[in-house]
Amino acid sequence: METVVLAEKPSQALAYARAFQKMEKKDGYFIVKDSILPNGEAYITYGFGHLVELAPPGHYDKKWEKWSLENLPISPTKFDYLISDDRKKQFNIVEGLLNKCQKTGSKKCKKLVIIGTDIDREGENIAWSIINKANAHTEDKTFKRLWINSLEKEAIREGFQNLRNGEDYLPFYYEAKARQISDWLIGMNGSVLFSLHLERLGITGNGAYSIGRVQTPSLYMIYKRQNEIENFKKEPYFELEANIKAEKGSFKATLSPSQRFNTKDEVKAFSQEKNATEGTQSSIIANVEKKEKKTSSPLLYSLSNLQSKINQQFKASATDTLKAVQGLYEAKLLTYPRTDTTHITEAEFNYLKNNLDSYKSFLGIEIESTQLEPRKRFVDNKKVVEHHAIVLTRQVPSKANFDKLPDLQQKIYLLVAKTTVAMFLPDYKFEETIIETQTGDLLFQTKGQVPLEIGWKQLFSKSEEKEEKDTVLPSVNKGEVVEATISLAEKETQPPKPYTEGTLITAMKTAGKTVDDEQAQELLKEIEGIGTEATRANVIETLKNRKYMITDKNNLVVTEKGKILCKAVEGEPLLTSAEMTAKWETYLKKIGRKEGSAEKFLENIQKFILHLIEKAPVHIAGLDTSSYEKQKVKEEEKDIVGKCPKCEGNITAKKSFYGCTNYPNCKFTLSDNFRKKKLTKTNVKDLLQRKETLVKNIKKADKTTYNANIKVNEKGYIDLVSFAK
Questions:
Q1: In 350-469, at which residue ranges do the beta strands (DSSP E only) sit?
Q2: Domain span including residue 720
Q3: pLDDT band with cut points at 50, 70 and 90 for residue 207
């Protein structure tokens, strides 16, 4: 029986190959030999992520090649998968390995196929899409699943010795496939529908408007918050405060229970009713309570929590964080990144404990480890379904290797290292003092905190962890007479905070129920969010790339283009409601648990699309586009780089070229690069005026560079005039 291992991408295949005793590299695959393999040998091949993709609309019907409202809905009866030209060679290699005996070339050969793609739903989708396209899901094959959370040699070898039944994970493939097809249907139909109806209102020049099952409600969350901020009117309110003067010192206090007043007259009436007045008066210490308390170290990281934290601390985007964590995973320094849990199993706890001295040495700490038994806060086998939390691997980088890592990878590794090690360190202990002071019938409360044992907090700086208020209070006794000066504090209500990528990730995870508090997040853990750990960063990046929103000082701001789209869809709750989208996600997960039907889910998606086609034109027809038109003129003026040499229209930057604003009447375009060297605005202005311009540092194949003088010819193409010093 021949063994074929299907990895997701070349780097993953290489990590597998290096874990065995012997490896030989071939074109598109590896041959490996080792005693732990069936028959002592295996072929390891790979995709480039998705080797096969859903076919475009025109594949099913020629009429769907061109956008037309009359041809909606785009709804194939059966979905086909195609291979792009640049991936056909690798697909043919994989297909051959899956179906033929390599030593005889015969097709009559039993195979063991080990699925070694990422251990998530998308990994199953990638693997089984390739297997099915290759017609390799046949009875003469046995399918096994490699299940590992780390690319370390030890973890890989252990995984190959404990393979799981591959067909047990087919429901995850059906779930991912249903997700993929539903996104295709909503994207293809919604984008045509809204783009063409907006075009009828004169909303043009910004490219197509894309609609997405997760992308659109995510954008609408930001739009809704932005509207709340823009329309927010600050309102004054008043609170009672007191400054307490005791024999051994003074301290501030606030009304208990807390209460807000709309006017000064309300405060005056309330105070008189409670036999107190503004100003200084005799008071009494009604109660003094002292308690020793402790807090455990922070939860371990899921991908979403890590993306939120890194954005908060370092302003890095969700995509940059995911890339950095993926890099650390491939470098065998962190475990699998696309995880949605903050827990580990006892197996991970034990290897982390065994390697604790190495981790502490790397961090340069000598704090005693006192928490050496698993605690439910961190270790819970029942809460680890597919992947455990992101933690350190057994491999610890040397200082020289760590210094070679990119800056963001260093920051992330240090944060995960500290959080992992903190789990084993003593709790933070402090003494909390609560003093209640009575003035008339009013009660004022003061809280103070004194650290007793810093514990795990020694690992973190103030910017990494919320700092507790270390307020040392003077010694007072119950019944002690003190002097209280009551004053009126005038304050203002504050608008909600704009979304950052970090807080948006949290909002997507909790279906719009934004919470920062760790305990509150625990209460919301059963809520299904929108998107997945693997897709949320990509959704945010898509919204930015399509210019529906921008990042301004780490805050997400919806553009005029994004606003017009949000106004167009706001009549459709299924497109704007995060909670409604979360219900779809919940049903998709049921498919993965064999509790739901992909056919039923897609049938409902089809019904929704028919509803959209009927109702969307009514919502769009009444749109006010005046603010959009004004902003469009401003943006176009800002983007103008020169006059069109053909029609005297304006030339503006497009996605990968410069074009005329009089399109389609004028089709003049100009490349934005010369021999892959990006042109400067000065270059472009010179070229539009038919002048020669100098382009510097053009790269050659051997990575050396040269300078060149270039010019636009009569046909509008860029020609090399001469080389320059």
A1: 428-439, 442-453
A2: 637-724
A3: low
